[in-house]
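Supplementary notes for students who missed Thursday's class. We covered one full example, reproduced here. Read the sequence, then the structure, then the short commentary at the end.
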Amino acid sequence: MTNKKFEGHSFHIPVMGIGFTIDSPIKVAAYGMTSTVSLVDDVLLEKMRAFYSEKFSIPYESITNKMEDSRAKRITAYLNMVDHIVREKFDQLKQSLNETGEEFEKYINMLPDYAEIKKQFNEFIDNNKTIDEIKQWANQHLQMGGIDVNIMTKLDKENSFNKEKLPVMYNDAHAALRGFANSNLHSSIVLSAGMNPRLYSYFEQFDCFFPDENGQLNKMVILKISDYRSALIQGKFLAKKGIWISEYRVESGLNCGGHAFGSEGSLMGPILEEFLDKKQELINDIHTVYIAALKEKGKSVPSKPLQVKITAQGGVGTSEEHQFLIDKYKLDSIGWGTPFLLVPEATTVDNDTLDLLCKAKEKDLYLSNISPLGVPFNSLRGNTKDSERLEWIDKGRPGSSCPREFAKLNNEFTDEVICTASRQYQNLKLKSLKEQGLDSILLETENDLAMQKTCLCVGLGTSALLVNGLDTRIEGPGVSVCPGPNMAYYSKVVSLETMCKHIYGKENLVDDPNRPHMFIKELELNLSYYQKTVMAYLAKPSDAVKKQINTMSKNIENGIQYYRDLFANQSELILKQLDDKWIEFIAIKSI
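Structure (token representation):
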């Protein structure tokens, strides 16, 4: 049992895709579980708002594209509706004590035994408290889970209205931020996919991100980062704007779902060790910058540094790993993403995709080239969006009609940016390749690379439409799915209660005895990435890639030694696996 104090749950559900966690707060927040909604697709959010408004008899008025600032308004309206529904469900849960108490009991049972709320409740029962006393206690102590939101900072496309280019504040990410800021939520916005200085500066426009006279924040900021250096740089940048980072969310660059970012061979263990050693230094350094900025702006200045949480996610899959991360690195929460794709009570995944996920083995989960962002993307072989893409290629019409346009980032052939997954781009790319006079083998390879790009803007959201019986005529029925490598070790759909039991060590859902420890799996993925980088350098040498290889080599070598020290006298199996990985590392290094 952990020595760290937790009021409620010690896990959170990160954002997954565009639609897989779009309504997760409606499903789990009343039980005290925090989840994260993607703000990429305002059209999908509007469709889901119409669906849930009808389901819960909430007045609904459509927000159309013809309305000014429609993107931000749709996001605000959806988040306000989610907040309303969650609060209603939370009140009903507490009111269930007047009847069977079933929902209240479910809330308590799903908590870890070390949760303060659960311990207090058990003391009430042991002391034979009356139902009225328990109800009064529940009203004071039960907590809703967070309704957090996520912005991919680089998806900040410029927009037009009535054929006129709009100011920067109407860019996609800017509008999403404004939509969240104007909502009723008291929660956090997760910033992912790197630093966007222009977007970060826009935070200054909203009072909700500044502390009130009591030093409290109405809305908080979470940074998804890869290492300590990134946390310090981005934290200070935002602190200079008077914006405090309430949580630094460390994510494994490769052992995660969705887009994968090779972190130059830096491994999760050493990264978390640095945060453990330097957390107070990080807080103090940023607090100094923060209070100076607040004073300059004439804002309320907290008497002491605001709360900072350090959390981690990416590859965790057993209760032992969950507890180890908390105990060793004093983390405030552990992100469980991929396994929750198999929990319909928490996420929104269509039946065909659920079936594929249950059957997925290691060979079916791969790092693909399908993302139009040009970043490696974790994918599942045989997903229905891939089948749809191949069908269009067979018909001689490769590419997507690009109905959403969120990933329009390329101007290789056009004055205006277009998406590399679009039919327009792929036709232009294939024509260009044909004109270059490449030999047949190289031409086929390059054509295939171009046509691998798929419409993730739609594919990652369509599942929410299919599950709820909504129209997909514009989007099509194809679903892209982005599980991490961890999915290979899970094989069945389970209930929310069962997944909680798995996380807290009361049940085991991992049915593969050969599943490697999360740190070993991440090391394996980094070695594979290291080898690919070496081979790319040999094919096309450059000083930049050579420098990258040297950095990766040093980080992997240091990481292996760190793990040898960490697991000495603890696990012979892990030490043996580390020896095997060391031999593999030396072999790659000597190429």
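Commentary. The chain has a mean pLDDT of 95. The CA atoms of residues 92 and 180 lie 26 Å apart. If anything here is unclear, bring it to office hours.
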